[in-house]
């Protein structure tokens, strides 16, 4: 038997219970060398620990996982990066892959799937949760960007000048859900402000 060292992994999620669950899942399979609760913390952790793999949520306070990924790639850091997220939108998975991610796994997936995904990514492959795989990979290859009917509804209300609380009341959603929709839309359309979002949506004919 060989005593090869376990792969060193850092993980980021702002939900402590989820992070503790991942820590238990990885025990004996990977060496979890650090847990961050926000974007800036994850960026510092990766720079300091130089792990073999980064596992991160998408939405986090103070900066999100995609921003961290883009910052690392801009620095020339090619550390394998896997998203573990609740967002089941193929277009967002495609956006993540275009930004340089190596994997995109849904939190609803079984623990065995996540472990398999990490093994595949560490072996040099890419992985997307099967339920998202085909449309996400097609979108990645073709540069397609699609919004769901609910995202279009939120987008049009944002363009109409409504704030997140007003949109939440109008659609019967929580403010957090509206903000998550808005964030996803901005990532898909590759914009960084509400003004840019409205302009891009107008250019693409999404507001009619």
Explained architecture:
With 208 residues, the protein is an alpha/beta fold. The protein is 53% helix and 12% strand. The protein contains ten helices and six strands; from the N terminus they run βαβαβαβαβαβααααα. It has helices at residues 16-26, 39-49, 65-74, 90-98, 111-122, 130-142, 149-159, 164-171, 175-189, 194-203; strands at residues 8-12, 31-36, 53-56, 81-85, 103-106, 127-128. The protein has a six-stranded parallel sheet, with helices on both faces. β1 (8-12), α1 and β2 (31-36) form a beta-alpha-beta unit. α4 (90-98) packs across α6 and α7 (149-159) crosses α9. The longest helix is centred in the C-terminal third of the chain and has 15 residues, at 175-189.
In short:
The chain has 208 residues and is α/β, with parallel strands linked by helices. 53% of the residues lie in helices and 12% in strands.
**β-sheet strand percentage:** 5-15%
User: What is the mean pLDDT?
Assistant: 86
Strand order of the largest sheet: 2-1-3-4-5-6
Q: Approximately how much helix is present in the residues?
A: 40-55%
Number of strands: 6
Number of helices in the DSSP assignment = 10
Biggest sheet overview: 6 strands, parallel
Topology summary:
Elements (H helix, E strand, L loop, with lengths): L7 E5 L3 H11 L4 E6 L2 H11 L3 E4 L8 H10 L6 E5 L4 H9 L4 E4 L4 H12 L4 E2 L1 H13 L6 H11 L4 H8 L3 H15 L4 H10 L5
Parallel strand pairs: 1-2, 1-3, 3-4, 4-5, 5-6
Helix pairs in contact: 2-3, 4-6, 7-9, 8-9
């Amino acid at each position: 038997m060989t005593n090869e060292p376990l792969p060193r992994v850092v993980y980021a999620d702002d939900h402590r219970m989820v992070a503790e669950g991942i820590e238990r899942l990885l025990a004996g399979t990977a060496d979890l060398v650090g847990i961050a609760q926000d974007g800036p913390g994850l960026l510092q952790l990766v720079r300091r620990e130089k792990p073999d793999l980064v596992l991160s949520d998408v939405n986090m306070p103070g900066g999100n996982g995609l921003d961290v990924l883009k910052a690392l790639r801009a620095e020339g850091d090619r550390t394998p990066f896997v998203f573990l997220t609740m967002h089941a939108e193929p277009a967002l998975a495609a956006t993540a892959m275009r930004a340089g991610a190596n994997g995109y796994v849904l939190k609803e997936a079984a623990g065995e799937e996540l472990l398999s995904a990490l093994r595949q990514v560490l072996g040099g492959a890419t992985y997307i949760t099967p339920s998202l795989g085909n449309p996400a990979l097609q979108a990645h290859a073709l540069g397609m960007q699609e919004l769901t009917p609910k995202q279009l509804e939120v987008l049009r209300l944002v363009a109409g000048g409504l704030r997140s609380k007003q949109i939440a009341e109008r659609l019967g959603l929580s403010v957090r859900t509206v903000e998550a929709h808005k964030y996803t839309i901005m990532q898909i359309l590759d914009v960084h402000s509400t003004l840019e979002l409205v302009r891009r949506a107008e250019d693409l004919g999404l507001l009619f």
